[in-house]
Write a structure and sequence with these properties.
Layout lengths: L1 E7 L2 H8 L1 H18 L6 E6 L2 E6 L4 H16 L2 E3 L4 E3 L2 E7 L8 H17 L5 E2 L1
Parallel strand pairs: 6-7
Antiparallel strand pairs: 1-3, 1-6, 2-3, 4-5
Helix pairs in contact: 1-2, 2-3
Length: 131
């Protein structure tokens, strides 16, 4: 089981520079790009907060999850967001955590590990995957 936590880099600056409607468009398009990347039936994605998304990959090991995370990062980074008047490119930082479910491994521990790795990705320069 793997969990990806994604954060749109410098989202506050996007909102400040282009306005909140454009920021909402960024969120909508990021969600669509994530959904287009994770197509297996048990996989799921959700907005986790402000500019953060969570992707649950129940049948994916760490190596596979890192591959999915890289595909998501590339897809979002190559996408031009446009509202017809202004345009921008987004980048994302992603933390990837994996474990084999057991009594010793809790969902809270998985979430904390992914969050810690997301923080590391942001701290190490953003627009990267840490796992």
């Amino acid at each position: 089981m793997s969990l990806l936590l994604l954060d749109i880099d410098h989202f506050k600056q996007l909102n400040d520079q282009y306005g909140h409607p454009f920021g909402d468009l960024c969120l909508t398009q990021a969600a669509q790009l994530i959904a287009n990347t994770i197509r297996r039936p048990p996989d799921s994605a959700a907005r986790y907060g402000g500019e953060e998304f969570a992707v649950l990959l129940p049948n994916t090991d760490k190596e596979g999850a890192l591959h999915v995370a890289d595909k998501i990062r590339e897809s979002i980074g190559q996408h031009q967001v446009s509202d017809g008047q202004q345009q921008a490119v987004m980048t994302v930082s992603i933390g990837v955590a994996s474990f084999i479910p057991s009594q010793n491994n809790t969902t809270e521990a998985l979430l904390k590990a992914a969050d810690d790795l997301l923080y590391r990705a942001k701290h190490n320069g953003r627009n990267r995957v840490e796992g």
